[in-house]
Amino acid sequence: MINLIIFGPPGAGKGTQAQIIAKKYKLTHLSSGDILRQELKNGELGKKIKKYQDAGQLVPDSIIIAMMEKAATNKIKGRGFIFDGYPRNIRQAKSLDKFFKSHKISLGQVLNLRLSEVVAIRRIILRGKTSGRSDDNLKTIKSRYKVYRTQTAPLLEYYRAQKKITNIDGQLPIMEAFAKIETVIAKIAK
Ligand code: AMP
After folding, report:
1. HSE (side-chain half, CA atoms, 13 Å) at 26
2. Does the C-beta of 85 come closer than 6 Å to ligand 1?
3. Domain ranges of the chain
4. What is the CATH number of domain 2-188?
5. Which burial class, exposed, middle or buried, applies to 180 when counting CB atoms under 10 A from its CB (0-12, 13-18, 19+)?
6. Which atom of ligand 1 lies closest to the CA of 147?
7. HSE of 93 in the Cβ direction (CA atoms, 13 Å)?
8. Is the minimum distance from the CB of 92 to ligand 1 under 6 angstroms?
9. How many angstroms separate the alpha carbon of residue 36 from the centre of ligand 1?
C-alpha cells in the first residue's frame, strides 16, 4: 500500500497531479474540496459548507474530519490513498495519523508542490473562467492564501519532523512535475 499526501497552496496543481498519480498507481484519490462540493446541494449542511468555501475559510474540523474518515475507511482495502487538500491544519493531520495507526498503515510521503504566490493566483483566476467554482475569484483567493499561510503551511514543519516531505517544483509543466513525483514514489514503493 502506498499512502501519499499532495500538498501546496491553492493553485499549485494538487488536483491535477493527484488525478494522474491515482490513475497510474491505482490509488484512491480523496480530495476534501471535491468531497465537500458534493455536499453543496445537501440542505443545511450544504449551506454551511458554501458559506465557508465562499469566504475562503476552512470548513470546521468537526465536519471535514468525519467525512474524510468515512471516505477513507470505505476504501481501506484498496492499494492506497492520495490525499488532496487534506489535512489543512494540525488537528486534521493528527487525526489522519491516528487513522493510519488504527489501520496499521503508514504515510509514504508528502509531495509538496512549491510555486510563487503570483503564479498560483494567476492560475486560479484562469481556472475560474471555466471551473464554475464560486471561490475562484480574486477576493476569495486572497483569503484562501492567508488561510494557507497561517493554518496549513505549518504542517510542513510537522511532516518535516517525521522526515516525510519531498519538495516538487510546482511551476514545471504538468508532466515534468509528474516525472519528479514518479521518482519519489519509486523510492518509497521499494
Ligand atoms: P480546494 O478544492 O482544496 O481548493 O478547497 C476548496 C475549499 O473547500 C477550501 O477553501 C475550504 O473552504 C474547503 N476545504 C477543502 N479542504 C478542506 C479541509 N481539509 N479542511 C477544511 N476546509 C476544507
Report:
1. 4
2. yes
3. 2-188
4. 3.40.50.300
5. middle
6. 10
7. 20
8. yes
9. 7
